[in-house]
Amino acid sequence: MHEPFFGGNEKEYVLDCINSTFVSSIGSYVSKFEEELANYCKCDEAIAVVNGTSALHAALHVVGVKANDEVLTQAFTFVATANAIKYCGANPIFIDVEIDTMGMSASSLKIFLEMNAEIREGKCINKNTGNKIAACIPMHTYGFPVNIEEICEICENWSIPVIEDAAEALGSKYKGKALGTYGDLGVLSFNGNKIITSGGGGAILTNNPKYAQEIKHITTTAKVPHLYEFHHDQLGFNYRMPNLNAALLCAQLEQLDQFLLNKRELAERYKDYFDKIGVKFKWEKNHCEANFWLMCIQLESLEERNSFIEASISAGIMARPSWQLMHTLPAFKDCIRDDQKNAKFLQERIVNIPSSYRSIN
Ligand SMILES: *Cc1c(COP(=O)(O)O)cnc(C)c1O
What are the pocket residues of ligand 1 if the criterion is a CB atom closer than 6 Å to any ligand atom? Predict the structure, then answer.
């Protein structure tokens, strides 16, 4: 679906990193990457971690999500989003998505909160369970921006912090501003299949210096800096990105603009073709710029979806459906959810098609 492409300074930087012997969590490539990523996304702070899942976990941790809290998100997502919520001992609430953006529906979010939540002592509480609704994680599906401004506005009215799962959306923009920089925190992934990769990796974006400092601290085992003593002032995690991965990633980030142009060109060619044969090719909305990470078509039915995928795979061209909805998986079957009408509609119809950077046109 999406192959990595190493066409820049990858070998030079990785070799330099090996020669320096600083291959682990201390080294200049980590801070170089963090600075360049924050510049690229035009936000104050970027913190590099071992993967997108740990980035989500650390973000939930710093906004104060605790055991038995509830976290709003969508069932139409990759399992990592829901897993990270469970790692905090919290439970996801699945809000339906919109058909066009494939991300969290602001109107469904608003309706859910109006019907089920109330503010008690400045906190948003689920009236039915008595638990705190402690965060909201909208996800920018396949790099297409969700209606992030409206979601942030609703969450602000309900005193709910927003963590954008922008794991698939580096390079995408909403009204000219990078995704991942609208919420209190934004999360990116650099897994092997993402738009740029460090093998495995992730990052957290924020404009809040307090969150940034705390994330740096808890992702490095909460060790208090000292010349020789090992004092850890709270429960910490070993989540910092190794320098070796950051070296690869610095070279990848240099090529991101080129990747974005190349993918948009492919998307335009797909769109022309699918328009001609009357198949819906998913496109960005007004005011939005998608990174076209994974490109997708929307077919007419589950039967048509399955026969398309089978025909494509037997012709030697990879095609695959979207994820199974989170509440249909054993770990999340009892989670609170609304009707999931649009999520079901999309799950039965969306097919991802080959979306890699192409070095030959
Ligand atoms: C890739 C991805 C993540 C994080 O994945 P890691 O493999 O842990 O880096 C999180 N959420 C979504 C939606 C993703 O696609």
Answer: 51-53, 77-78, 80-81, 139, 165, 167-168, 189, 191, 202
